[in-house]
Amino acid sequence: MTTSDDAQYSRDDEWFDSEGLRCAVAVFRPAATTADTPAVVMAHGFGTPRAVRLYAYADVFARAGYTVIVFDYRHFGESEGEPRQLLDISKQHQDWRNAVAYARSLDGVDSRRIVGWGTSFAGGHVLALAGTGEDFAAVIAQVPHVDGFAAVRATGLRNALRIMPSAIADQARALLKRSPRYINSVGQPGDPAVMTSPDAMDGRTRMLAASGLKDGDYLETVAARILLRIGLYSPGRTAAAIQCPTLIQIMEDDAVTPAAVAIKTARKIPDATVHIHQGGHFDPYTEPKFPIIVDEQLSFLRRTVPLAT
Predict the structure, then answer these.
(1) How many distinct helices (H) and strands (E) make up the chain?
(2) Residue 114: how many CB atoms within 10 A of its CB?
(3) Do residues 109 and 37 make contact, with C-beta atoms less than 8 angstroms apart?
(4) In terms of Cα–Cα distance, which of 141, 92, 133 is closest to 116?
(5) Quick one: which of 145, 125, 122, 151 has its CA closest to 48?
(6) Using an 8 Å Cβ cutoff, are 64 and 297 in contact?
(7) Which of 25, 34, 196, 287 sits a CA distance of 20 to 30 A from 66?
(8) Residue 4 has what pLDDT?
């Protein structure tokens, strides 16, 4: 167990079972609490481990008195699962369900008040789960993936043609039960990578630096077969069925999850709070936008799942 420098919370590194594999989870427990607290369950976006900036959000929420559960999907980060870097949407949904069940089981947590927090691809996951019956007390979706076709279109035809051979080759290898063919998650414009917007590499570098990480600390690839499925994954389709309060944070110049479709999706959610900011997809994670973004999230939490007084 570790504690924050001013002992406002403790952190325990634990794990939960997800279909026979151990998913790594960090549990942040506020120190000064006498009542069960709401819990914020958090996971990262496309192919990225929790260590890349999620702990910064968890620190803010835990200091405010919330229990926070930050997990890595199977196949990624500190979690088990072979082959590595295998992104399977249905398995990640199941990891989310198991993480939420784990959060509900923890001592000191109000099991009726679990918040789903997701960013980018995971922002889509929490919306999809909330729209298909997961009983969240609230949802926070930061720059969420909401429309598969729009996301593919945003990458541009040239990039799609550049990366498609890797996707097809990897799918063939999967059918033959061979090791994956990998592709970089982030690259420069013109590189054979998934996200190649002009701000992608700079955003990735800033996120690593702000997390105290360096090149090579974590794998930055993904099994390319997921590229055949992104276009079919549109969490926005079930947005109208979301019953809990939902915060959607959108960046105007987002070249990965386009703002226009995120706004359209947010309008379908009965109880949605929407904040739109200038900047690109990677800006919310680091200065100068991070303090503004996380303050909006904390204000939303205090309003929708307040701590006991």
Answers:
(1) 8, 12
(2) 25
(3) yes
(4) 141
(5) 122
(6) no
(7) 287
(8) 82
CB of 111 within 8 A of CB of 102? no
Q: How far apart are CA 272 and CA 269, in angstroms?
A: 6
pLDDT tens, residue by residue, 191-221:
999 999 999 999 999 999 999 999 999 999 9
Specify the residue for token string 């980018």.
120
Rounded to two decimals, the pTM is 0.97
Q: Is 42 exposed, middle or buried (0-12, 13-18, 19+ CB in 10 A)?
A: buried
> Percent helix, strand, coil in the chain (nearest 5)?
40, 25, 40
HSE, CB side, 13 Å, CA atoms: give it for residue 188: 0
Whole-number Cα distances in Å, 253 to 82, 114, 208, 289: 36, 31, 21, 14
β-bridge mates for residue 40, sequence order: 68, 115
Per the listing, tokens 């949904």 go with 93
Give which of 147, 56, 70, 120 is closest to 250, Cα–Cα. 120
